[in-house]
Amino acid sequence: MNKLYLLAAILLVHFSSCSTRIDLFNPATKIPVVYLQVNPNDSMHYLTLTRTFSGEVSAFDIASDADQVFYNSCNIRLEGWIYDYRAFETYFEPSEKTKTPGIFPVISGYCFELSKTFLSELITSYRLVLDLPGMSSPAFSKIEMIGPPIVKSERDRQISLYGERCEIGIAPGPGSAYCDLVCVFRYQQLEETWINHVDTFCLRKDINYEAGRTDYLYPEVFFNKIAANIKPVNDTIVRKFTSLDLTLYAGDQYFRDYIDSYQNAGDHDIPPKGNINNGLGLFTMLRSATKENMKLDSKTHDSLCMGQFTRQLGFVRW
Length: 318
Hints:
The strands form three sheets. Strands 1, 2, 5, 6, 10, 12, 13, 15 and 16 form a nine-stranded mixed β-sheet that branches. With about 325 residues, the chain is α+β, with helices and mostly antiparallel strands. The protein contains six helices and 16 strands. The chain has two domains: about 25-145, Immunoglobulin-like; about 150-250 and about 290-315, no CATH class.
């Protein structure tokens, strides 16, 4: 019995002296890791750039060294093409904007920006080119232009989900391979005073379309999603609907491949697919269309307040 106590004491001392940090070693070639998501309508575009790293010490120590993670200098350009003709080129500049870097140093050296709008219906594709120190050839990628998606309503800024057909029509742009319809739902809740609340949720995910077809938002989907994403209340709390936005996001095939790789990988052991030649990461197009500050017509509003899916949410008609 005494030997068992001695063994337990030795194990306790051993584990209590161990650090919770795991030293990771990753012998990798230094190559760029770049991410850029383009919407031609945006006035500002951000690109993140780091590089793979390796060494004789722990990867955690290397990751905290800016010289090991970031490029000291780089030349990043975005080109617009009309079939086989290069119509324009423009360059990214270092940005002061920072994102949450995790274990990386908190500096702005890995984020670049382009403050130009380059929308043109004549452009058929875009090419990203990175000339980086230490690379024998540039890292590059090319994406095809996709058309703008459409969210339409026969009544401006009003949602009517009942009648001969539902009014809210949604359609992707040409070349789209992935579409999500997102709702920003605003309401007030009486908590001694009226308090503003906003809930954002996906109404339709990965919408599958036939080419040239317009789909519609139906009441069963709309109210089911509201009930699933807004918490019910007791009888002493009331809510008033204020307004909502509907945004349709449409992405290209590379964006779909990227999303599918996460879903299919399970625990994410498989790296997400990318399309960067001589590098890692993703260059993709994601476009959007939004109807802002929309109201509900009287019948749709009545269904929100008294319908079978949403009556427990406490919305009132006054």
